Amino acid sequence: MRQLLGCILVLAVCFQLGLAQVRQYRRRLRLSRETAACLRRMEAELTERLTPLPELLSVLGKEAPPLAGALFTALAQGTGELERAPFGALWQETLDAYRDPGLVPELRRCLEELGWQLGRYSAQIQGQAVRVCREQAEILAREQGRELETRTRLSLGLSLCAGAGAVILLL
Description:
Radius of gyration: 21 Å
Largest sheet: none
Number of helices: 6
Mean pLDDT: 87
Structural class: mainly alpha
Number of domains: 1
Number of strands: 0
Order of helices and strands: HHHHHH
Low-confidence stretches: none
Shape: elongated
Distance between the termini: 13 Å
């Protein structure tokens, strides 16, 4: 009876590890989609309403969905000290300090490049830079969405196989 219980626990732990990996994939997808939506709004605000960047980042941080909201809140707080350094350097510093595991390297690079464009040029050029970043985020989200089902099956299947292997070795 104890062996059976032990086997079930080993399988459950391995399956839980697989589920944790799947949650991570979903978090990445959600952050990419939310960031793309925020960038769409940022583009409109910059080109049509000419909203100042600090105010825009604060609004996005408050009104965005949770994952992107946390990112834009951090950017708003990090870029608030313009007398200390240029906007692009503060943006870069904030992104370097932001450690959400859902922020994939491709999206991070896109946002880093965007930071160096914001606050330096005309509203139209800034809007174009935001549009390019948004399009890259949307492409990334589509790719992640296509890969999600395959990665889910792979992660859960491998975790169960690892659990079954461990059970066999323990018996």
